[in-house]
């Protein structure tokens, strides 16, 4: 596949920021984002919003970082290191979402600023363990989404946010319209969890045109961190100046390779892996 360019000046890589939760099992969240960014050739800055107690079987608890500390991490990175794009993942609460949104707006991160913002509205782990308080869904809809350059919900998150159960092309289009109406510049409805086809098709909508992005489906139970990986790769491509459709083409192909390289870990679900990039370099 065509990879992202490395170090525009031959020394310092493009930077991106992930604002998300940690996964002690190393499969998803900030660990997946940082790994993806590194292997895409991008320097990962991190603003930790929550710490999960997690292994391959599930999430047994999480601790929320005080909102002003989350906001402080974002501000201190952006004003010194500078970033080409940012991504949000697990934000846990209304208070954290509010602090993140205010800080991003202030720093020119988001659909109306200079720095693109990918919003992955993480609500639950693949085991169904909650990662977002239910009361925070309104803040996702009305505070976070209006700020986003692009949103990347999976089908469970689409249902929680819009009330629409996606079962086919027609309901996917309805859901994309409902997501876009909340204010992001672009909405993606990820079809990876629609297991009725041998392809995984994501639908991208900008308020006018529907575009489909398709990859062969890889049948594996080891898909922990798959959504994070797609959104992080998308963020890396945007940080390199790609348009959203071109960034999604890149992210979809990247994630396909990571799914193909996924591995067993612990007694539960293993992670998707960007380490294929190292194998192919040998
Ligand atoms: O894959 C979504 C996700 C994001 N962030 C954290 C997670 C998970 C899934 O378990 O734990 C911290």
Automatic annotation (TrEMBL):
Q: List the Gene3D superfamilies.
A: 3.40.1190.20
Q: In which pathway does it act?
A: Cofactor biosynthesis; thiamine diphosphate biosynthesis; 4-amino-2-methyl-5-diphosphomethylpyrimidine from 5-amino-1-(5-phospho-D-ribosyl)imidazole: step 3/3
Q: GO MF annotations for this entry?
A: hydroxymethylpyrimidine kinase activity; phosphomethylpyrimidine kinase activity
| Pfam name, any one | Phos_pyr_kin
Q: Which UniProt keywords apply?
A: Kinase, Thiamine biosynthesis, Transferase
Q: Is Kinase one of the keywords UniProt gives this record?
A: yes
Q: Please write the reaction equations for the catalytic activity of this protein.
A: 4-amino-2-methyl-5-(phosphooxymethyl)pyrimidine + ATP = 4-amino-2-methyl-5-(diphosphooxymethyl)pyrimidine + ADP; 4-amino-5-hydroxymethyl-2-methylpyrimidine + ATP = 4-amino-2-methyl-5-(phosphooxymethyl)pyrimidine + ADP + H(+)
CDD domains linked to this entry = HMPP_kinase
Q: Where is the signal peptide?
A: none
What class does this enzyme belong to in the EC scheme?
transferase
What InterPro entries does UniProt report for this protein, alphabetically?
HMP/HMP-P_kinase_dom (IPR004399), PM/HMP-P_kinase-1 (IPR013749), Ribokinase-like (IPR029056)
Instruction: Respond yes or no to whether keyword Transferase is given for this record.
Output: yes
Q: Which residues form the Pyridoxamine kinase/Phosphomethylpyrimidine kinase domain?
A: 23-272
What EC designation does it have?
2.7.1.49, 2.7.4.7
Summary of the function given for this chain in its UniProt record: Catalyzes the phosphorylation of hydroxymethylpyrimidine phosphate (HMP-P) to HMP-PP, and of HMP to HMP-P.
Q: What NCBIfam families does the database record attribute to this sequence?
A: HMP-P_kinase
What's the protein here called?
Bifunctional hydroxymethylpyrimidine kinase/phosphomethylpyrimidine kinase
